[in-house]
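Margin note from the TA: students keep mixing up input and output lines. Inputs are the sequences; the output is the structure of the whole complex. Example:
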Amino acid sequence: MKKIIIIKYGELSTKKDNINFFISKLKNNISIILKNIDNEIKYDFGRMFIKVNEKDIDSVVNKLKKVFGILEIIIGYIGNELEIEKIKNNTLSLINDKKFNTFKVITKRSDKNYPINSMEINNVIGGFLLKNISNIKVDVHNPELSINIEIRKNEVLYYFNGIKGLGGYPVGTLGKGLLMLSGGIDSPVSGYMAIKRGVKIEAIYFESPPHTSEMAKEKVIKLARVLSSYNAEIKLHIINFTEIQETILKNIPHDYLITIMRRMMYRISAIIAHNNKCNILINGESIGQVASQTLTSMRAINEVIKMPVIRPLACFDKLEIINKAKEINTYDISTLPYEDCCTIFVPTHPVINPSVSKCEEYEKLIPYKDLIHTAIKNHEVLIIKEEIENKYQDLL
Amino acid sequence: MIYLDYSATTPVSYEVLDTISKVTKEFIGNANSLHALGLKSANLLESATKQIADIYGISPNEIIYTSGATEANNMALIGVAMANHKKGKHIIVSKLEHPSIYAICNYLKSIGFEISYVNNDKEGLIDFDDLKNKIREDTILVSICAVNSETGVRQPLKMIRQIIKKENLATIFHSDITQAVGKVSINFHDIDLASMSAHKIFGPKGIGFLYKSNMIKISPLIYGSGKFNELKPGTPPLPLIAALSKAIRLANNDLEKRERFVNLLNMKIVNFLEKYPEIKINKTKYSIPQILNISIMNIMPETFLHMLDKHEVYVSTNTACSSGEISNSIMAIYDDSKRAKHTLRISLSYVTTTDEINKFLEIFKEEYEKAITVK
């Protein structure tokens, strides 16, 4: 029997009118990740069928586990023996290696000319299995193993319990956002969560050489690379923040350093987002985590831009964020010990309840509009893909 | 020289040697260092690891570099034992393992673990029913090699995995794949842990890796610092790692074509040796062609090995790691102690030539017939 991969859609089924758009986007996203593998994809409103060579099945399933918009990934088996006796034996041999105590047979007959109806097939197969496997019972409400049999024109499709997919919406179905990506634990997780809701992301990173090292930038590239495995590729905007940061340090009272610095980052991010057709900013802020993330701080900082800022982690505990970071493989990269521009020049007593009027007052002391203009004009753009270009091909 | 001991070790290929030399000269930075030279080394390390991961369809952080398969076996078995001793202390291994596995099992036994040995049938294949019966609730690990080093018997890892996981989902499956790498294809999704070594595939001695699926946890054997892997701290040996990555890439070219060619050489030797009634061919239908084991019942194998030695023909008795003892694997398959004492292993590679085999058979005939006349 030939194996086939079956995909069940996630929340898409709630999108009545534009479901076609969602599914074809999902199909495109899948085609992109399978570009180096021979495949054939067909779909209807209920599910998608992917045919690949037998040897590629495991690796394709692994790739599909990283695609948003998939509720369940199921391995199905296609046989061309339509006789009921053959179906009985095939079912038995397919479930031979499975461990279960309760089961249910669910038959669909898309070929209505087939002589036995679905209910009867359920009974025949169920009875046959009960006779041939000891210690199993039928449970129609909550079976451990669901045995699905679909009788079509010239073939029979068998499938069983599937593997859980990531859920969410296909990436790109809800437009674009700009992720403020530091080297820390939180921002990659927020990026992941935005991607999960179908938002295609670009990312922005602020570097402060020589205070921050090349390694710190390399670390952010690695984080972007992890995220790109869910997002096809990521456009990473790198802003040289040294001059702005040094000017702030020289001219602004130290308890307001972080607040003003964040206001500058927000201003730059909003402009970059606007220029790149991103509708929202996304960041890793979590209420109360540090001085710049108190509610008053958030308000004083957010006040400089009009664009909506999505903070997927606002109400998460640190431990919850860490667990998620470990799950998506960003934690080990985030905890590499390099300084980033939020951790250098941290004042001993940053203001916890900054006032907007004071921020505005202090900002008059520096020519920030010119500095921002220069930083944006000179910014670097990298396209990060999951596959690293192998610079060392001759050596390896 | 006619080298027919490729399963003991292989010479380093020219391409791999070139990598070792270039990387040693050009990548002097410690991959753990913060400066540009460190970064350059870290980047090469990353590319080398990614290449291996891509070839095997695994993730780069599932690769832990070791000094070779013996270290990887230690890391796997002891690592699983230490991480899971509260869940259970029962470990199952086959009777066809590399001696290092038994040495580790003896150690684990001395500190309170229980070791069971799963039987195999007359073809060398694991007895599935016996395996099924031996798996218990407290079985934390099953270790079964992919290819036996003495007889070349290949085990169906997928089926073994299915049996293990059906009986006890928490039982971890380790496989020593050293003799399979570069000879037959391996699906890493069939196993949780796997050990291999570069020097069996024309790479340098002193490097190998442990594959550890991200789904399982093991305890470290050694402690130290370094950012790449907590299970193997310290400065990564970059020239060896780059060499390993290259050796793996080269070894995976044309696997099937190479196997077919080696099979022809193997058949040629078998056809020739079958003429002698006192020579038993220890080959089952599951043996891979690269490893050919025979028992010369009327001569001590060591004597014959030295007779061939004089002609610069190199084969081995048992495996290089257990010379001098009775062959466990032959005993496990044929249950014949004389046969197990008289084994000789001829191991072939795709670089072996037909000329070499012709010459080998000529020398074999001359020396063998001389030896029995003297006797």
